[in-house]
Amino acid sequence: MIDNKKVALFGWHPDVVNYDKWPGMTAEKLRAALEGDRDSLLELGYAVDLHYIRDGETAFDAATEALTGKPYECVLIGAGVRRDEDHFLVFEKLVNAVHKAAPQATICFNTNPSDTADAIKRWT
Fold first, then answer.
1. Does residue 21 lie within any of the structural domains?
2. Is 49 part of a structural domain of the chain?
3. Counted domains in the chain
4. What H or E segment, with its residue span, contains residue 108?
5. Which of 79, 84, 91, 99 is closest to 37 using CA atoms?
6. Contact residues for 45 (Cβ-Cβ < 8 A; gap 6+)
7. How far is the C-alpha of 6 from the C-alpha of 69, rounded, in Å?
8. Inter-CA distances, 110 with 20, 47, 60, 114, Å
9. What is the DSSP code (8-state) at residue 106?
């Protein structure tokens, strides 16, 4: 049963993404996709928190703070963080923040903003 399974979604804030790396994507399209993913999960019965990363320097602390003391069952780290080689260390920081602050949570990954629900459903 999905009802109220708590999940956290982590991805870049749409205002800080280098869209030269993602042809056809814009801040507006990314924001709509991320919020659409959140809304789809809410419709499926999940309790969802969407967390935006603003920079690599604060990613670990921000994620740790967002996760600490909350009973997340699953944490998704978005493809924009994971698939961009320039942000490999940010991805590493987020994985370790989840491991530290939410050790009970499974970790999952999407391949783009449209398959987040599939990733979450694989692990909840």
1. yes
2. yes
3. 1
4. strand 106-109
5. 79
6. 1, 2, 3, 4, 5
7. 12
8. 21, 18, 20, 8
9. E
